[in-house]
Write a structure and sequence with these properties.
The protein is mostly helical and 183 residues long. The protein has 7 helices and no strands. Helix 2 runs antiparallel to helix 3, helix 3 packs antiparallel against helix 7 and helix 4 runs antiparallel to helix 5. The chain is globular.
């Protein structure tokens, strides 16, 4: 694999986990998330608008705009749920549960509902993700009532966060099919 791609992936992962550490350590994670989203919006909207103008103002189908609005609404729910999880539990409980649940939830409908087939590398990735969640988080403890204290509500909010992540990922996937992905 190209070293630049590896470096970009590792850099993105570092930024991602740093963002979550900031949210967890903030006095109020929802306020920190709100400030972060508004700051990113202030930077990215002008850049995207300039890119849109420079590229000849390509048309944006109404369906893409509707999906963008829906994605924003689902991401708002995501931030509320994630903030609630971080207020109740440790980063080591919330982060892997939310981030690990989402891809599994995104894969299930692709395979069972849309009858998509996965190549061996994809199946290996799914198996590794599932094994990681099972080994690290032991989700059966929640079902069996073995999770107590602040970990129980934190885990429930983290699972709901995973559902929200899977939701906005599915919406974004459909939207990206209607327009150039950078838009």
């Amino acid at each position: 694999m190209d070293p630049l791609i590896v470096a970009l992936l590792l850099g993105a992962a570092l930024l991602h986990v740093t963002w979550h550490v900031i949210l967890k350590t903030a006095g109020d994670p929802l306020t920190a998330a709100t400030i972060g989203v508004w700051a990113a919006t202030a930077v990215l909207v002008p850049v995207a608008t300039l890119g849109w103008v420079v590229s000849g103002r390509p048309s944006l189908p109404a369906a893409a705009l509707e999906l963008a609005i829906l994605s924003g609404a689902v991401e708002t729910v995501y931030f509320v749920l994630l903030s609630a999880a971080y207020r109740r539990g440790d980063l080591s409980v919330v982060y892997p549960t939310a981030r690990g649940t989402a891809p599994l939830l995104a894969v299930v409908p692709r395979g069972s509902v849309f009858h998509e087939r996965f190549d061996p590398a994809g199946l290996l990735g799914i198996a590794a993700l599932l094994a990681g969640i099972l080994v690290l988080q032991r989700p059966w403890r929640l079902v069996l009532g073995e999770v107590s204290g602040s970990d129980r509500p934190a885990t429930l909010f983290a699972l709901a966060t995973g559902v929200a992540i899977a939701g906005y990922t599915a919406v974004d996937r459909e939207g990206a099919r209607l327009v150039a992905p950078w838009l």
